[in-house]
Amino acid sequence: MSANERKWTWEEDGMTVTRTHARTGPGCHINCGILEYTKDGKLVKIEGDPENPFNQGRLCMRCLSMKDVVYHKDRFKHPMVREGERGENKWRQVSWDEAYDLCETRLNEIKEKYGAQSVVFAQGTGRDIFQLSRLAYAFGSPNHGPIGFSGNSCYLPRIAAMNLILGGPLIMDCSQSFEDRYDNPQYQVPETIFIWGNNPFPSNSDCFYAHWVTDVMERGSKIVCIDPRLTWIATRAELWLQLRPGTDGALAMAMLNVIIDEDLYDHEFVERWCYGFGELQERVKDWTPERASEITWIPADEIRECARIYAASKPAAIQWGVAIDQTTGGVECSQAIMALESICGNVDVPGGNVFGPPPWGIFEPNWTGGWGYNDLLTPEMKQKRFGLEKYPLLNVGFLTPQPDEAMAALVRGEVKAIWAQTNNLLGAMQVQPEKYYQIIKDNVEFIVVVDLFPNPTTLGLADVVLPATTYTEKTSFAGLMPYFLGSIVNCIEPVGDTRSDQQIIFEMGKRFNEEAFPWDDVEGMWDYALEQSGMTFQDLREKVWAYPEFSYRRYETGMLRPDGQPGFNTSTGKIELYSTAFEAMGLDPLPNYLEPAESPLLNPEFAKEYPLILTTGARRQPFFHSEGRQIERWRRMHPNPLIEMHPDTAAEHGIKDGDWVYTENQFGRAKLKAFVTKTIDPRVVSADHAWWFPERDPEDGTLYGAFESNINALMDYKCGKSGFGACYKCMICKIYKAEDGE
Ligand SMILES: Nc1nc2c(c(=O)[nH]1)N[C@H]1C(S)=C(S)[C@@H](COP(=O)(O)OP(=O)(O)OC[C@H]3O[C@@H](n4cnc5c(=O)[nH]c(N)nc54)[C@H](O)[C@@H]3O)O[C@H]1N2
Ligand SMILES: Nc1nc2c(c(=O)[nH]1)N[C@H]1C(S)=C(S)[C@@H](COP(=O)(O)OP(=O)(O)OC[C@H]3O[C@@H](n4cnc5c(=O)[nH]c(N)nc54)[C@H](O)[C@@H]3O)O[C@H]1N2
Ligand code: SF4
Ligand SMILES: [Mo]
């Protein structure tokens, strides 16, 4: 359907239909095409847009039941200022002007007294508020990014490595860059896809829609799955490798060993486009499948088979997930996986792993991170980003503080205010939340939280709460995935006295620095951001989506480098199997495997006390991290926090399915319900993350039970040498039945 035939709004059965895309809030990492049905100014339902190339009509239950979120009784509907002590739940409803006045006065006082860097603008997993960097920089602080989230361990470890080694991020090719999708004659389905540390069906993680996996399977793709749990997709796989959590790097090193040793790699591509193959060959020489088998628990023959399938499949694609990031050696493991993709000739080929269209020429190039860094921050302030001195890798391609260091600064009393937006820091990402709750409460003078719902962070920490809208109530655009530009158009007016994140940033930004937000309104800001696409926001609203030109093997045509030369956007112009940039930063230029920081191999004595490997946070529908526990229809699907364990493990500890169980290690403990299942290795347990209980009385002093079932009580700051990576997916623990029964 061409843009000319496409209508963006029409009347149907007495309802108005708005054709647009979903976005946050509530949380999601992708933008399905939707039809929003409204009547008398109210949302009636949301349906998938069958014409939209991205999702082709399909939706998950979160958008399908969006009404339950939009009109939920608990939603914040007015700005509020804290009256009693933090955690007492005493609030005063105020006007937006009063709330803004207070924020402006307090934040400027703090800036005057301690410097702008002492204010952290904390963004969580929210994928639609990249303008928050501009707010931080307009204020003068270089510290925009998560705080409390060890090792920036969501996607950024992979992106850091990809930016340096390949010159930009790769993603599995499911034809998503073509408007005509699988019908496009240039496209070819992967022969095999490797689902690695990712579970797309519940997660639909960044830039990737799960249904594409079944789409390509229907067209012939085979599956290899690398996961400690037997997931739905693992049951459909040719090969399922059930590895010890945190050891993916060892598997990747051994796959490289087999592929090079058996001469299965793509000589032509390596000679023409890769730098440092000899060094790589030397590095992986000792990584025999037998050695990796001892580390990963995967039989050596299966490692060989996995390597041979990857090398023989033309093309093969790897869809990897956050499990790679959330190990201490997440960056080094990413280096190894990229080396696999490169030496087997799967980079930027149809059905392999491809770059998105380069962002230049499509939208404001810094839109998805660091917008305002160049034009608003002073050189002195740029140096005051927490962790920058220690971790130079922070300078490549994204500009967040290093969160472990930011928290260390907070502990030293150097963080005086936090502006948190799309971030339930106590509820979802903070390691040892109870301990750090006290420290944040004592050390941070002023905290603003912009959110849709009350949660442990708003209750326990906020001095001011600003109520945000859902995506049905705001305008924005989908551009994080550079395959396409998509409109996000409101179909109803904001509920209560809520405002969109973008409007809040825009209005606060003008107060901090009028010149940094020179536009008349939010839509003017969108026009600016879209300028390079040749469209205004109104054009995009009417077109609904627009796909930039896309082609393959762009290293041959000079389209991957801003200077137009053939090659990759790295300093050697080649894929750096041996990274000159890593070397210059004092990091290991070659891939490697690092044992998780807490490991039975590194510390066998200690492991006797905590004999089980703990992986956490495997995504569940319909929740998004700490969200959605108050949405009744969703909660019924998943009423309690679960810990998965093998029947033998349960029996050994006298635990039955459904028992409440404590999981404990040297850092803390959490209480979850046993889910006994043969789909997990007896030596491993897998715990849900981000649990709290909105049904609790907010005045019972427990912050909605924030510290009872929160598995992050067992986590610690354990990033790698690069400043990236963490231990959320590979801790150690013991379990025992909770004596207090139910
Ligand atoms: N143990 C363990 N911990 C983990 C993980 C794990 O695997 N294991 N995963 C980690 C990962 S990858 C991440 S990214 C972090 C996520 O950490 P967070 O980003 O803190 O996670 P959420 O619970 O989604 O919190 C988001 C908050 O933003 C609000 N919100 C949602 N949409 C919007 C919006 O559009 N605007 C505004 N203003 N607010 C909105 C929600 O109501 C919610 O309170 O958690 C990490 N924590
Ligand atoms: N419904 C829902 N969707 C979400 C989110 C959510 O909270 N809920 N969160 C969003 C966010 S912020 C992110 S980052 C993405 C993440 O989405 P994914 O990348 O899919 O991440 P997870 O579900 O945490 O883990 C994926 C799989 O890795 C397995 N795994 C655990 N440990 C290891 C390991 O050490 N090695 C390997 N190979 N596998 C391991 C788990 O068993 C799980 O099946 O999802 C996003 N989408
Ligand atoms: S994946 Fe689900 S929540 Fe996300 S946009 Fe699509 S339907 Fe909505
Ligand atoms: Mo994430």
Q: Please summarize the sheet with the most strands.
A: 6 strands, mixed
Helix content: 25-40%
Which residues form runs of ≥5 with pLDDT under 50? none
- Give the DSSP E fraction (strand runs of 2 or more residues): 15-25%
Report the structural category: alpha/beta
Shape: globular
Average pLDDT score: 95
Radius of gyration: 25 Å
Number of strands: 27
Q: How many helices in DSSP terms? A: 28
The N- and C-terminal alpha carbons lie at a distance of 56 Å
The neighbouring-strand order within the major sheet is 6-5-17-16-15-7
Bound molecules: ligand MGD, iron/sulfur cluster, molybdenum atom
Structure report:
Helix 4 (132-139) runs parallel beside helix 21 (501-512) and helix 8 runs parallel beside helix 14. This protein starts with 8 loop residues before the first strand and ends in a 5-residue tail after the last strand. The mean pLDDT is 95. The chain is of the alpha/beta class and 742 residues long. It has 28 helices and 27 strands. Helix 20 (456-461) links the parallel strand 16 (446-451) and strand 17. The chain has a 6-stranded mixed sheet. 30% of the residues lie in helices and 17% in strands. The structure holds ligand MGD (2 copies), iron/sulfur cluster and molybdenum atom.
What's the structural blueprint in terms of helices and strands?
Elements: E1 9-12, E2 15-21, E3 33-39, E4 42-48, H1 61-64, H2 66-70, E5 80-82, E6 91-93, H3 96-114, E7 119-123, H4 132-139, H5 156-165, E8 170-172, E9 192-196, H6 200-203, H7 211-218, E10 222-226, E11 239-241, H8 248-261, H9 267-273, E12 274-275, H10 277-284, H11 289-296, H12 300-312, E13 316-320, H13 322-325, H14 330-343, E14 353-355, H15 373-376, H16 379-382, H17 403-411, E15 417-421, H18 425-429, H19 433-443, E16 446-451, H20 456-461, E17 464-467, E18 476-478, E19 485-488, H21 501-512, H22 522-530, H23 537-543, E20 545-546, H24 554-557, E21 575-576, H25 580-584, H26 604-609, E22 612-616, H27 632-637, E23 642-645, H28 647-652, E24 660-665, E25 668-676, E26 684-687, E27 731-737
